[in-house]
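Page 47, continued from p. 46.
Same chain as before, 69 aa.
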Amino acid sequence: MQIAESLSKPQSYISKYERGERRLDFPEFVELAEILGIEVVSFVKNYQAARASSKVQKIRQPKKLLRGS
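Result:
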C-alpha cells in the first residue's frame, strides 16, 4: 500500500516528511496513524514515557568539568 495514494497526496509531499523538511500537524498525524495501523493514544503515551525517561537520564549524567589553562 502506498501512503501517498492512501492520503491522496503526491509522493513528493510524503518525501518531505521523510526528510524532515515538513512537519505533520495533528490531524495529518492521526490520518497517517490510521493508515499505518498505529493506535494514537498508545503512541502518545509511549512517546511521553520515553521523553520523561530521557529527561531523567540527562539529569543523572555527570557534568564535565572544564580545566583551566
